[in-house]
Amino acid sequence: MTDAPPVDIAAVVVTFNSEHHITELLDSIPAAMGQLTYSVVVVDNGSTDATLAILDGRADCTVIRSHNDGYAAGMNRAVRHSPQASAILILNPDAVLDPGSVPSMYAVLRKPGTAVVAPRVREQDGSLSPTLRRGPTMGRVGGLSFTGRPMFTERIEDPQQYETEHEVEWAVGAILLVDGARYAALGGMDESYFLYSEETDFSLRAKDAGWATVYTPAAGAMHIGGGSGESATTHTMKILNRVRLYRRRTGTVRAIVYFWLTVATEVRRGLLGHAKSWPTVRALLHPKERPPLLGARDSLLPR
């Protein structure tokens, strides 16, 4: 934390080649905050496009230049460079906040036992973005199931589930408001994930501690998604981190089964035309082919 006066909300953003989106996000923040006091810290994880030039031309945020040691590490760094705050507003650079959305989220966050608040998110075309998720289980190994049945899929598709405020197991981390003290108590984001699964892990650890993640339709935002693009490497990281998360929460024996089900799921996706799944299958079966940034090359079952 800095020596700056405390604020209600510390908005934190991690950018990586975000030149096409960061301006719209930053422009949306003042109206979104209402009467709340706030700060904005942007950590740039080594952009090679015009992101830093855009940020350097603005006076409404603090910019921290960093090497790319992961999204979670960048988020923790942004929090460390922020003033003391009652709540931390985690934002992807390709998000846009609705006017007055943060006070609505903040009102929910102040309810007893709440650690994380997720707003109603829409896609760029205005349609609902299904950001709510069920917890990982053996049956949900694929994350997104063609059956659409809750016992087999993490993603909550039912539009009715987005009409009322309720507790969820976790939500996509593009826009989240987190209690500042509870963020600190949980040690922030787990940096070992590098990219993907850090928000899942955080909400599940909060739940373990007795604190809820709550969805509210009273606050709105837009998320374009894919602002930095998905490659075969990032898809591999996403799948490997799902296995790592499951292992850390359930133990090695169950994770072995989960691992082989993951391999089968990715083979199926590859056969159905998902080209990025084939490099993922190779990385699952050959640890030395895994992205070194994950530190998961020492055993077949990723740690």
Automatic annotation (TrEMBL):
The keyword Transferase applies. Residues 12-131 form the Glycosyltransferase 2-like domain. The keyword Coiled coil does not apply. Keywords: Glycosyltransferase, Transferase. It is an enzyme of class 2 (transferase). GO terms for molecular function: glycosyltransferase activity. It holds the Pfam family Glycos_transf_2. Its EC number is 2.4.-.-. SUPFAM superfamilies: Nucleotide-diphospho-sugar transferases. This is Glycosyltransferase family 2 protein. It comes from Microbacterium terregens.
